[in-house]
Write a structure and sequence with these properties.
Chain B: Keywords: Chaperone. Chain B: This is Proteasome maturation protein. Chain B: InterPro entries: Ump1 (IPR008012). Chain B: Belongs to the POMP/UMP1 family. The complex is a heterodimer of chains A (273) and B (141). With 273 residues, chain A is of the alpha+beta class. Chain A has a domain of 184 residues: Aminohydrolase, N-terminal nucleophile (Ntn) domain (Glutamine Phosphoribosylpyrophosphate, subunit 1, domain 1), CATH 3.60.20. Chain A is built from five helices and twelve strands. In chain A, a hairpin with a 2-residue loop joins β11 and β12. The termini of chain A are far apart. Chain B is mainly α and 141 residues long. Helix content of chain B is 49%, strand content 0%. Chain B contains nine helices and no strands. The longest helix of chain B has 17 residues. In chain B, 3% of the residues are buried. About 5% of the residues of chain B have low confidence. The interface between A and B is large, with 31 and 40 residues.
């Protein structure tokens, strides 16, 4: 039988969806594997000469830390960087596709990439997939029109703002930013504020942790610094928990020898210096 | 411009013949399809399935409609003629064609999407039977 109407199509394949829903409904005890989320705090702000982006470095899988030092600030163009929160794989693949598309676009239009272009491409892609691609991104960069900061949500909505935070730790981070942000700050003030905001997220939120990464984008280019600060250090143990031999009294001792037979003996010489 | 021509190609459901036993000697493939039920065969299994199937067609419709409004009737008509001409250049019936000219006409040659990365048709695990398909095409079957 010739299936002339059916052609293999590239892109997402929905072959297993029916089977998966069937398995979930009929097998009650089944634990479906969950996608690894980043459980993040990401923050960004616009200062005098450009944009500063900051993020934590912990990736979680349900309630286990999957990666203690992952990179959440992704390269899009030499003058545009993007922080990703949400499902880790979705954020990573989306930013890689965006970076490739921006490069192609810049080559074909022969112009330097703009932050608004990145945001529009991203929004159109996310809206096409109706939020099933779980990536929340903060895009920041410096282009010919000046410094810009956008935050984009998984369904495709966006905001063009001067400071923002996203991820599971956005509550503490946004409160710090709301309290201490001033327009046109200097580089030192701005960097200090971003580090404080991400630190607040790391300390208050269980899904964020490890170090703070910072990326500063100005007219001269972008400077990406890993592990600018490590707010949460493992503390030293307060007391000793080893018990001396003999603490527990032995009441009775029984020895049962196991009947073992020697079947084969091989001797292998080892080269020891 | 009459976009009804494209509209008639839109798929509003998944064809039933794919999902259940299609011939007297074919078993319903329980391993791959699961147990057969009418609901499964009529409704799509994922909210995005239909919109993704029709995506390229809807994009073309939108682009032709905009072009008609801006540049008049002849522009989309000429483009559609070029589309038809370019779609006829294919390889043998069981081989996947790269559709390079079609991509260029649509403007997809300058962007990368999930259809280029995931599920590449040239890497597909299923292929039609070469001899039968060529015989069918030549009318020998």
């Amino acid at each position: 039988m010739l299936h002339s109407a059916w052609e293999p199509q590239g892109g997402f394949s929905f072959e297993n969806c029916q089977r998966n829903t069937f398995l979930e409904t009929s097998l009650k005890g089944l634990r479906v594997p969950h996608a690894r989320k980043t459980g993040t705090t990401i923050a960004g702000l616009v200062f005098q000469e450009g944009v500063i982006l900051g993020s934590d470095t912990r990736a979680t899988e349900d309630s286990v830390v999957a990666d203690k030092n992952c990179e959440k600030i992704h390269f899009i163009a030499p003058n545009i960087y993007c922080c990703g929160a949400g499902v880790a794989a979705d954020a990573e693949m989306t930013t890689q596709i965006l970076a490739s598309n921006m490069e192609l676009h810049a080559l074909s239009t022969n112009r330097k990439p703009r932050v608004a272009t990145v945001t529009r491409m991203l929004r159109q892609m996310l809206f096409r997939y109706q939020g099933h691609i779980g990536a929340s991104l903060i895009i920041g960069g410096m282009d010919v029109t000046g410094p810009h900061l956008y935050s984009v949500h998984p369904h495709g909505s966006y905001s063009h703002i001067l400071f923002t935070a996203m991820g599971s730790g956005q509550g503490p981070a946004i409160s710090v930013l709301e309290d201490r942000f001033k327009p046109n700050m200097t580089l030192e003030e701005g960097q200090k504020l971003v580090v404080e905001a991400v630190t607040a997220g790391i300390l208050e939120d269980l899904g964020s942790g490890s170090n703070v990464d910072v990326c500063v984008i100005t007219q001269d280019g972008a400077k990406f610094q890993r592990a600018v600060s490590t707010p949460a250090v493992l503390s030293k143990r307060q007391g000793k928990y080893h018990y001396p031999v003999g603490t527990t009294a032995i009441m009775k001792e029984t020895v049962t020898p196991l009947p073992l037979e020697m079947i084969e003996e091989t001797v292998q010489t080892m080269e020891v210096e | 411009m009459n976009t009804r021509g494209l509209g008639s190609q839109l798929k509003d459901s998944i064809p039933v013949s794919e999902l259940s036993a299609s011939g007297p000697f074919e078993n319903h493939d329980i391993l791959r399809r699961g147990f057969s039920s009418v609901k499964n065969e009529l409704l799509p299994s994922h909210p995005l399935e239909l919109s993704e199937k029709n995506f390229q067609l809807n994009q073309d419709k939108m682009n032709f409609s905009t072009l008609r409004n801006i540049q008049g009737l002849y522009a989309p008509l000429k483009l559609q003629m070029e589309f038809k001409a370019v779609k006829q250049v294919q390889r043998l019936p069981f081989l996947q064609s790269s559709n390079l000219s079609l991509d260029i006409l649509r403007g997809n040659d300058e962007s990368i999407g999930f259809e280029d990365i995931l599920n590449d048709p040239s890497q597909s695990e299923i292929m039609g039977e070469p001899h039968m398909m060529v015989e069918y095409k030549l009318g020998l079957l």
